[in-house]
């Protein structure tokens, strides 16, 4: 840090403070983790200085032999780990991976009559005029994904994201009583809507998804079946989600981030069969610029780690811990969407505590517990204030906390939520943001959280 400090001390201070925050607070954000020192070191090095547009052995820059090495190793580990025919490890993030996949499917499936007449099949060969035709035709392309408030992700066709502008989108939700995915309802909507892409995957759905059933629905309506496994890739890698719950054998194309339960560097990845491989490899220059070779090096290391038996044990513990956390909260009276979890996350409906998600998130942070607010299905408080907080166990499991500690964590979360009261704004009107939490309670919980982590 001294080297950084000699140039910009404020950045050095922020890095130090971030390390302290991450060490001392209970990190329950379901999409975060702690990458290993090997992953962090593979990422912080001279690869960052290298341009390498293109693919392995076919670059638009000279001097890429070392980048070729790390990109090949990362792709090889990804193929072996997930049992995929093809892996594209260049996407810089989950959103990039999804964009690469969308364009691969579009390029593969959308016949633009004007282009077909001209014999043009590659997106890269399009002229301005072709693009005008393509844009018109794209407006008709449809995507069906999980609704945001049921736990889907913005990139699955929602308005504020480019995917919502590229596709005519519809969504499937969850059963209003059980909170579970209703496959018959997905089938009904798919038959009516006939999407080009049927999308599965989520950011806040606390249950496994049966990908075999989803593929059957996709086949019935002639859709390409895409799964965004960003959240649960670590559980697939760790062989906790197998058979019907492993997306790779069932989907035409799978995307993921590498930094959540998979515990790698921030980044994305696309897996597919041989039919889509050539289109996926056109991610650069279609959607991406130069790859991040330092991040690909770190992906290679993280994927190598995920192939080891201890990663399977880790993934198993992530799910056990989530179940224990859910059990501990339910026992104390918390209301959980779907009543529990069978993956790495749970969603607490904090309206039972008389709070909005925003108030709950802020109060928990005051007490050293880092979470994020999240909509619950059909949320009356909308996507900003929300009525839920999402909790996940990948990070605390990486710290070595187990089932016994999860019960204590549940107790701390409950103490904070039960001890927080909403407060009126200055105008006397009930605020969705303001809250009161006794400082002594917050300090006691923060102290206990730090003690729990001190041994891990
Ligand atoms: N897909 C899913 C299901 C996600 O949960 C996320 C991140 O929250 C993304 C994609 C986007 O990933 P990134 O933040 O790396 O762009």
From TrEMBL:
Signal peptide: none annotated. Gene3D superfamilies: Aspartate Aminotransferase, domain 1 (3.90.1150.10), Type I PLP-dependent aspartate aminotransferase-like (Major domain) (3.40.640.10). CDD domains: SHMT. SUPFAM superfamilies: PLP-dependent transferases (SSF53383). Homodimer. Pathway: Amino-acid biosynthesis; glycine biosynthesis; glycine from L-serine: step 1/1; One-carbon metabolism; tetrahydrofolate interconversion. It catalyses: (6R)-5,10-methylene-5,6,7,8-tetrahydrofolate + glycine + H2O = (6S)-5,6,7,8-tetrahydrofolate + L-serine. It is found in: Cytoplasm. This is Serine hydroxymethyltransferase. Its EC number is 2.1.2.1. (6S)-5,6,7,8-tetrahydrofolate binds at residues 148, 152-154. Keywords: Amino-acid biosynthesis, Cytoplasm, One-carbon metabolism, Pyridoxal phosphate, Transferase. GO terms for molecular function: glycine hydroxymethyltransferase activity. Its cofactor is pyridoxal 5'-phosphate. InterPro entries: PyrdxlP-dep_Trfase (IPR015424), PyrdxlP-dep_Trfase_major (IPR015421), PyrdxlP-dep_Trfase_small (IPR015422), Ser_HO-MeTrfase (IPR001085), Ser_HO-MeTrfase-like (IPR049943), Ser_HO-MeTrfase_PLP_BS (IPR019798), SHMT-like_dom (IPR039429). It is an enzyme of class 2 (transferase). Catalyzes the reversible interconversion of serine and glycine with tetrahydrofolate (THF) serving as the one-carbon carrier. This reaction serves as the major source of one-carbon groups required for the biosynthesis of purines, thymidylate, methionine, and other important biomolecules. Also exhibits THF-independent aldolase activity toward beta-hydroxyamino acids, producing glycine and aldehydes, via a retro-aldol mechanism. Residues 6-109, 140-412 form the Serine hydroxymethyltransferase-like domain. The record marks 259 as: Plays an important role in substrate specificity. PROSITE patterns: SHMT. Belongs to the SHMT family. It comes from the Bacteria. It holds the Pfam family SHMT. HAMAP family: SHMT. The modification N6-(pyridoxal phosphate)lysine is found at residue 260.
């Amino acid at each position: 840090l001294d080297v950084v400090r000699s140039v910009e001390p404020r950045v050095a201070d922020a890095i130090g403070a971030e390390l302290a925050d991450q060490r001392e607070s209970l990190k329950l954000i379901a999409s975060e983790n702690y990458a290993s020192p090997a992953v962090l070191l593979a990422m912080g090095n001279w690869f960052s200085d290298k341009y390498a547009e293109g693919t392995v052995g076919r670059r638009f820059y000279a001097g890429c032999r070392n980048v070729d090495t790390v990109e090949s190793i990362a792709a090889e580990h990804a193929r072996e780990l997930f049992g995929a025919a093809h892996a594209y490890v260049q996407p810089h993030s989950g959103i990039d991976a999804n964009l690469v996949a969308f364009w691969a499917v579009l390029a593969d499936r959308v016949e633009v009559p004007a282009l077909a007449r001209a014999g043009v099949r590659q997106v890269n060969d399009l002229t301005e005029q072709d693009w005008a035709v393509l844009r018109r035709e794209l407006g008709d392309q449809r995507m069906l994904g999980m609704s945001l408030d049921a736990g889907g992700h913005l990139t699955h066709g929602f308005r504020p994201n480019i995917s919502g502008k590229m596709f005519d989108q519809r969504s499937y939700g969850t059963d209003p009583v059980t909170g579970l995915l209703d496959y018959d309802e997905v089938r009904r909507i798919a038959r009516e809507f006939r999407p080009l892409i049927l999308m599965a995957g989520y950011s806040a759905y606390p249950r496994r998804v049966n990908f075999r059933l989803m593929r059957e629905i996709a086949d019935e309506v002639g859709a390409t079946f895409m799964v965004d496994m960003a959240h649960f890739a670590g559980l697939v890698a760790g062989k906790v989600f197998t058979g019907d719950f492993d997306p790779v054998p069932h989907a035409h194309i799978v995307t993921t981030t590498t930094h959540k339960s998979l515990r790698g560097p921030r980044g994305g990845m696309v897996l597919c069969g041989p039919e889509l491989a050539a289109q996926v490899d056109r991610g650069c220059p279609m959607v991406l610029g130069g790859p991040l070779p330092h991040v690909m090096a770190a992906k290679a290391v993280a994927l190598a780690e995920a192939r080891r038996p201890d990663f399977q044990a880790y993934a198993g513990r992530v799910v056990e811990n989530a179940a224990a956390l859910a059990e501990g909260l339910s026992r104390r009276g918390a209301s959980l969407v779907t009543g529990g979890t069978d993956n790495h996350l749970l969603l607490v409906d904090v309206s039972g505590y008389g709070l909005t998600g925003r108030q709950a998130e802020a109060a928990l942070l005051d007490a050293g517990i880092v979470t994020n607010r999240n909509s619950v299905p059909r949320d009356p408080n909308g996507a900003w204030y929300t009525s839920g907080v999402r909790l996940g166990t990948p990070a605390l499991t990486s710290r070595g906390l187990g089932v016994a500690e999860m019960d204590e964590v549940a107790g701390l979360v409950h103490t904070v939520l039960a001890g927080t009261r909403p407060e009126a704004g200055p105008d006397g009107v009930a605020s969705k943001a303001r809250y009161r939490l006794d400082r002594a309670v917050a300090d006691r919980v923060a102290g206990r959280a730090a003690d729990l982590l001190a041994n891990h």
